Amino acid sequence: MNSEIYVVIIIGAILAVLLVGFIVTILFLYQRRQHRQVLEINRMKEEYERETLKSQLEIQEETFKNIGQELHDNIGQMLSVVKLSLAVLPMTDKHEAWEPIQGARQVLNKAMIDLANLTKSLHTDRITQIGLAESIHFELESINRTGLLEIEFGISGIEQSLDDQKSIVMFRIFQENLNNILKHSKAQKIQVILTYLDDKFIMKITDDGIGFNVAEKKNSTSSAAGVGLKSIFNRAKLIGAEIDMQSEPGQGTIVSIQLPLPH
């Protein structure tokens, strides 16, 4: 009789252990499946955000290209007509209007050069044709000629060509940083160093301006600078680049963008 009780107890214990094991297994599989679903939802969300951002940037680049073309074809043509009209005016250097007209011609020449530089900067095809480094150098030289800022530009390592999309996005990141410096930093000096390593490309932009609180500006939606910073980080995310932004009020700003390169 006692042996039968022991058998029943043992069988009951085994069944209880099996039942507990079954329940634990079911719970584990459920949690695992739920975890996979959360990961998949997050992946799909990131993919959607990436594709949305990519579409926005493609539309923006196409808009830049069209604006550049319109400026070149229409405004540039009108300026050329005005320049030609001034050149053929029948007067000598003895005429009382000679000096003002010469001044107007100089201003007109500068406007035409600035317009040409602007259209080149907006045109995506030029960036991919001459390369990222030369595009950045050209942009900095345009600022350097104004004499408003001290510009330092350097390249370290063996220059490598990036694919078209990454070149364009990196150039727009550079432009956005440059725009923030010119508008908000009150800097007197800008340094841009491009470094080419075997496995990554680094663009470092330094200014000696008034600096700012990075976290505060990045989370701000009420200022142009805050929107600009978000644009910089979003663009970097699109091409897999990492941004390290260091700044404090009164301490200037250092922005380092690292882009992995394929082996």
What can be said about this structure in brief?
It is found in: Cytoplasm. 66% of the residues lie in helices and 14% in strands. The chain is of the alpha+beta class and 263 residues long.
| Helix content percent band | 55-70%
Please state the structural category: alpha+beta
What is the rounded Rg?
31 Å
Percent of residues in β-strands: 5-15%
- The averaged pLDDT comes out at 80
Domains (count): 2
**What is the spatial order of strands in the main beta sheet?**
1-2-3-5-4
Question: What's the overall geometry?
Answer: elongated
**Which residues form runs of ≥5 with pLDDT under 50?**
none
Description of the structure:
The chain has 263 residues and is of the alpha+beta class. The protein folds into two domains: 114 residues, no CATH class; 114 residues, Heat Shock Protein 90, CATH 3.30.565. The protein contains seven helices and five strands; from the N terminus they run H-H-H-H-E-H-E-E-H-H-E-E. It is elongated, with a radius of gyration of 31 Å.
